[in-house]
């Protein structure tokens, strides 16, 4: 296993790229730590598969370098990078048994037969296919075949990383949950470096130690699920993570006060520096309260979601969401208050530090 790092990595599919929009991946300068479990999360077209294919060697980046453990691997083939990959759809040899499918990548690498047997049996156990070990792969269902693909990714002990590209798409919902927890357990036990592409927030947050949020070809934040929730570094993270997403309101800032039209919100501190351009106040619904005092709002809708209610309200013509207890009566003339611990400020979509 190895640390995977990116040195001014960019990729354009078109020749002679000029503007940022010409790049499917804009500049990436991050590192994925050795033994970390990462999820690449973002909407369709944000560049997740492009980044994964660059890591695996299926695609050579147009600019910058890719390093494994400090070694430049930008121009190495997939084979030479020693990476295991699991794709969206099963890649199995139909005419081989389940056992043979798992043993094959090890035999190819000249692993000792006794060791192969131990590894294959261990992997069969992990993916729950021990009882079907000697069945031909073609006789299995689509999700059993995908389990073989997962097993083939996990059977080799010598890989630099295991890459998963939306591997649970064909798996039924109950099994999805089970396989995801199994992957997590395997990660804890063996410490593989795992990179998992998904556009599903729940899948990313349950699988990964750290989630890499991508938006328009950029990595906008790498963080634990708690960090993404508490300190979104970009408005996209605030909006995309959480249900409902963060409330974002354009504001004018002077000192410690943010003005939303005629209304004032006291910030937890003054901005150290505030770049020119668009400024937004960002507060998650969990830190937004409907109350008797504060800024007047009009309530549009109340949704009961079990443990609490989501109140949708208009503040200066803009819809915001607040959480309310199930039993809490809503005031006749509703106002909104923002809890100081949940107030964030964004300049041109990026978080601004407040206070000393
Ligand atoms: N082979 C290609 N040639 C030209 N443009 C491409 C190619 N592959 C991807 N793109 C473009 O690059 C951008 C990033 O695509 P990519 O497939 O990496 O995104 P993604 O986040 O994986 O999306 P999805 O979740 O839909 O798979 C998109 O604008 C896409 O249209």
Automatic annotation (TrEMBL):
GO terms for cellular component: ATP-binding cassette (ABC) transporter complex, substrate-binding subunit-containing. Its main location: membrane. Residues 4-241 form the ABC transporter domain. It is a peripheral membrane protein. InterPro entries: AAA+_ATPase, ABC_transporter-like_ATP-bd, ABC_transpr_FbpC, ABC_transpr_MalK/UgpC-like, Mo/tungstate-bd_C_term_dom, P-loop_NTPase. It is found in: Cell inner membrane. GO terms for molecular function: ABC-type ferric iron transporter activity; ATP binding; ATP hydrolysis activity. Keywords: ATP-binding, Cell inner membrane, Cell membrane, Membrane, Nucleotide-binding, Transport. Belongs to the ABC transporter superfamily. This is ABC transporter ATP-binding protein.
């Amino acid at each position: 296993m190895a640390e995977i790092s990116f040195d001014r990595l960019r990729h354009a599919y078109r020749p002679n790229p000029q503007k940022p929009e010409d790049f499917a991946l804009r500049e990436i300068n991050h590192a994925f730590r050795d033994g970390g479990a990462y999820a690449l999360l973002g909407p369709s077209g944000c560049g997740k598969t492009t980044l994964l294919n660059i890591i695996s060697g299926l695609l050579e980046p147009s600019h910058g370098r890719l390093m494994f453990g400090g070694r430049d691997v930008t121009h190495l083939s997939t084979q030479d990078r020693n990476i295991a990959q699991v794709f969206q759809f099963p890649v199995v040899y139909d005419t081989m048994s389940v056992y043979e499918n798992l043993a094959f990548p090890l035999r190819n690498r000249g692993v000792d037969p006794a060791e192969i047997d131990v590894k294959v049996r261990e992997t069969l156990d992990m993916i729950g296919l021990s009882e079907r070990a000697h069945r031909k792969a073609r006789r299995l269902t689509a999700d059993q075949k995908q389990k073989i693909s997962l097993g083939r990714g996990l059977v080799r002990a010598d890989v630099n990383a295991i890459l998963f590209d939306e591997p649970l798409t064909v798996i039924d919902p109950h099994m999805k949950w089970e396989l995801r927890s199994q992957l997590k357990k395997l990660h804890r036990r063996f410490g593989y470096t795992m990179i998992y592409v998904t556009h599903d927030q729940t899948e990313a947050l349950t699988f990964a130690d750290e989630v890499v949020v991508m938006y328009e070809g950029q990595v906008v934040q790498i963080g634990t699920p708690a960090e993404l929730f508490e300190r979104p570094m970009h408005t996209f993270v605030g909006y995309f993570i959480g249900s409902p997403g963060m409330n974002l309101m354009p504001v004018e800032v002077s000192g410690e006060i943010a003005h939303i039209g005629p209304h004032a919100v006291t910030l937890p501190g003054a901005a150290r520096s505030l770049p020119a351009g668009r400024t937004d106040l960002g507060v998650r619904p969990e830190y937004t309260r409907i109350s008797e005092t504060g800024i007047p709002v009009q309530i549009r809708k109340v949704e009961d979601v079990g443990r609490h209610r989501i109140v949708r309200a208009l503040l200066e013509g803009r819809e915001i969401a607040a959480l309310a207890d199930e039993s809490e009566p809503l005031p006749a003339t509703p106002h909104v208050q923002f809890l100081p611990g949940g107030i964030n400020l964004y300049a041109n979509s990026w978080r601004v530090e407040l206070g000393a």
